[in-house]
Design a protein that fits this description.
Layout lengths: L10 E2 L5 E3 L5 E3 L34 E10 L3 E8 L5 E6 L4 E7 L1 E3 L13 E10 L2 E8 L3 E9 L8 E8 L2 H10 L27 E6 L9 E2 L3 E2 H19 L3 E4 L9 H11 L3 E8 L5 H5 L3 E6 L6 H11 L1 H4 L10 H12 L2 H17 L5 E9 L11 E8 L3 H7 L2 H27 L1
Parallel strand pairs: 4-8, 13-16, 13-17, 17-20, 18-19
Antiparallel strand pairs: 1-11, 2-3, 2-6, 4-5, 5-12, 6-7, 7-10, 9-10, 11-12, 14-15, 18-20
Helix pairs in contact: 2-10, 8-10
């Protein structure tokens, strides 16, 4: 395999940032970052991204990723992302689990539907999507600790498309840990936003209840996947949009979505938005999928989860563990967020407070409204320690709409009419819930 691209090898180890410009120039490498005008962006220390490719000044046309190629073996693997125009890419490595993260500004992905489902060599799979406004992200799952060599943008030549390429080189865990500790920047600090103080509950502009609808996953985190064209992140966003439209038409609520497009939103940010909006009710939408077995294919139907420090059963525990790991799938580090101990204290306190009772009240109403409209699972009421439900002042539930691992559920999940039925049922439950709350307040 070709180890160089006409320049000295450029190496990036754990916790370091490499910025590759169109001509293959490393603007920042081995953890040495540059700043523009002495400023940093609002989330973390960043290398400058304003360097243009030769001949591209003033262009605003977005680059498009059209294909990928992975070559090599379990010791050295070359990853190539085919592009329609030059880009500036930021690359770094994370551990626990081992991942390689590639950030590119204003990049649109038009890859085959099956792209990333499987890998080769050191790459077991990869995900991609919009990570933040004007920033796209590609996350490679790797089977061992790695460092990056020979990262460069290669122009189109002799029928070969332009592409961003880099080598993944296997190293042992001890070396990875040593490089991480010795680097000038610790693993993940480049991408995890600085902790923001939880905002005070929003002041009421109107007397209307505030509903926050939370479509799970998004961007490089697709959630559950079935076939080439059915992704959890798309299904739940479609249902959330329909639910918002139904509620907004009645003019009785202020309705907000935690995301209104295919973009990644961290779990911490979802919680922050709920408090910023002053939510009176928080509904997180998801779809489940079980490992491929004969038994899994028979499991179907919606399930409604409420918060509990101890999971109601093993299925609930595994699901909460999976959903709470969505930040890792999108390329954030595994370090606990600031205030995690406080969150646990809130959780313990929450179970003793009326918020839990209101959550249960809404769960029961939602079950009644869904019954007869869509299939419910055999145990439709479950509980676990979902991070997005750890809200001390806001009643909240997590609604799993069904199982992509079941053929009947899968067929319905992709149908706009079924999605509309779900949205209408949830809206009906919301109306009943606030009618009961209002009646209780007037007693």
């Amino acid at each position: 395999m070709r180890k160089g691209l006409g320049a000295a090898a450029r190496v990036i180890a754990a916790g370091s940032l490499l910025v590759v410009a169109a001509a293959g120039t490393a603007l920042a490498q081995a953890g040495q970052t540059t700043k523009q005008d002495g400023k940093q962006d609002g989330s973390s220390a960043r290398a400058a991204t304003s360097v243009s490719a030769p001949g591209s000044a003033g262009e605003t046309r977005r680059a498009v990723a059209t294909g990928t190629r992975i070559e090599g073996d379990g010791e050295r693997t070359r990853f190539r992302l085919e592009l329609t125009r030059p880009v500036v890419a930021q690359i770094f490595v994370l551990g626990a689990p081992y991942r390689v993260v590639v950030d590119v500004a204003d990049l649109e992905f038009k890859l085959p539907p099956s792209a990333g489902r499987s890998g080769h060599g050191l790459v077991s799979a990869f995900r991609y999507g919009l990570f933040a406004a004007s920033k796209s992200r590609l996350v490679l799952d790797v089977t061992a600790p790695v460092l990056i060599e020979n990262a460069a943008f290669v122009p189109a030549h002799q029928g070969n498309p332009a592409h961003l390429a880099f080598d993944l080189v296997r190293i042992d865990a001890a070396k990875f840990a040593a490089l991480k500790q010795s680097g000038p920047q610790r693993e993940g600090t480049l991408e995890r936003p600085q902790p923001r103080a939880m905002p005070p509950a929003a002041k009421r502009a109107t007397a209307r209840p505030v509903i926050v609808i939370d479509p799970g996953h998004g961007g490089p985190d697709p959630g559950a996947v079935a076939g080439p064209d059915l992704l959890e992140k798309n299904v739940v966003l479609a249902v959330a949009r329909q639910l918002k439209a139904i509620l907004a038409a009645g003019r009785r609520y202020d309705v907000h979505l935690t995301r209104n497009e295919d973009v990644f939103v961290s779990l911490d940010e979802r919680l922050r938005l709920s408090r910023q909006y002053g939510a009176d009710l928080f509904i997180s939408l998801h779809v489940d999928a079980l490992a491929e077995t004969d038994a899994a294919r028979s499991v179907r139907g919606a399930t409604i989860y409420t918060l509990s420090e101890r999971a109601s059963d093993e299925t609930a525990r595994r699901l909460a563990e999976k959903e709470n790991a969505s930040d890792l799938l999108a390329g954030l580090d595994a370090q606990p967020a600031a205030g995690e101990d406080d969150v646990r204290s809130i959780l313990i306190d929450l179970i003793r407070r009326e918020t839990a009772n209101f959550s249960t009240q809404f769960r029961n109403l939602l079950t009644d409204r869904l019954k007869g409209r869509i299939a419910l699972s055999r145990e439709p009421h479950r509980s676990a320690a979902f991070k997005v439900l750890k809200q001390s002042e806001t009643p909240c539930v997590l609604l799993e709409l069904g199982y992509m691992s079941n053929a009947e559920d899968q067929a319905r999940l992709r149908t706009p009419e079924w999605q509309r039925q779900v949205a209408q049922s949830v809206a009906s439950a919301i109306d009943a819930y606030f009618a009961e709350r209002l009646a209780g307040n007037q007693r």
